[in-house]
Write a structure and sequence with these properties.
alpha/beta, Rossmann fold, six-stranded mixed β-sheet, four-stranded antiparallel β-sheet, 32% helix, globular, binds adenosine-5'-diphosphate, binds magnesium ion
């Protein structure tokens, strides 16, 4: 039965995009940061967005996450308008229900432990959080042993994984990541990428801002933001055999 369903899926027309941006523009003052961007992102795909510093990558990610209303254009999520004048979702509800966001600077609260930081957004969600689910999440991400530690006593990689656990706790279908491995060593980067690849296998849709060739190698698609326009990168960087082995 499963294979039948799969066959039907591959034979049917292209599935509707989970995210559909049409002519999205945004300026800060007179500076046009995003210039009539069109972008479709399919459910279950892993997209990387690259571009020079200051090119507007974070700005675009904030728009996708329901944090920033563009000046123009439409953004449909599952066919529903996110920022319309009569938005079908409240933006707060949209973020809570559909979005996991990993901020570039982690944004952990210094006076809460790792575990409390992860729980924090769940406090406002109205959903009850199973203790077991929290434990599993911390265990999967390799931070269970740091549960009672405060952010100023953990490593960059642990802080990153804490922020990721927090972003994932409410099971969002869309995970947005802003330079998730920017300051991490390559072993920690590989661990984070493993987690991302697993999440994709579980059906999550991932959009990740990154300059890392290693992350790009694991993506389905690499886009580049230049002068306010998105272009499909010509080719993904060639996949290295293994991160741990030296190239011969
Ligand atoms: N709130 C803001 N007000 C004015 N300018 C901003 C604001 N946020 C970002 N910018 C500017 O817009 C440009 C794009 O920013 P950003 O999206 O953060 O770029 P990136 O993530 O690609 O480095 C940068 O030049 C930045 O300084
Ligand atoms: Mg940025």
């Amino acid at each position: 039965m499963k294979s039948q369903a799969l066959t039907n899926m591959t034979e049917s027309a292209k599935p509707a995009a989970l995210l559909a941006l049409k002519e999205i523009s945004l300026s800060y003052g007179k500076r046009k940061i995003l210039d009539a961007i069109d972008l479709d992102i399919e459910s279950g795909s892993f997209t990387v967005i690259a571009g020079e510093s200051g090119s507007g990558k974070s700005t675009l990610l904030y728009i996708l996450g329901g944090f920033l209303r563009p000046d123009r254009g439409s953004f449909l999520f599952s066919g529903r308008r996110v920022y319309g004048r009569f938005g079908e979702f409240g933006l707060g509800r949209f973020r809570k229900k559909f979005i996991g966001f990993l901020f570039q600077d982690f944004r952990l609260l210094p006076f809460l432990t790792v575990e409390q930081n992860i729980r924090f957004p769940a406090l406002f969600s109205g959903k009850k959080l199973a203790k077991e689910q929290l434990q599993n999440q911390m265990h999967n991400l390799g931070i269970a042993h740091r549960a009672k530690a405060y952010p100023n006593t953990i490593s960059g990689g642990e802080a990153q994984r804490t922020a990721l656990a927090r972003a994932l706790l409410m099971n969002p279908p869309l995970l947005l990541l802003d330079e998730p491995t920017g300051n991490l060593d390559s072993a920690t980067e590989a661990a984070i990428v493993n987690v991302l690849v697993d999440l994709k296998k579980q059906g999550l849709t991932l959009v990740c801002v990154s300059h890392s060739n290693y992350i790009m190698q694991h993506a389905d698609r690499v886009l580049r933001l230049v002068d306010g326009k998105l272009t499909e990168a010509a080719a993904k960087p060639v996949k290295a055999a293994s991160r741990t082995k030296k190239k011969s």
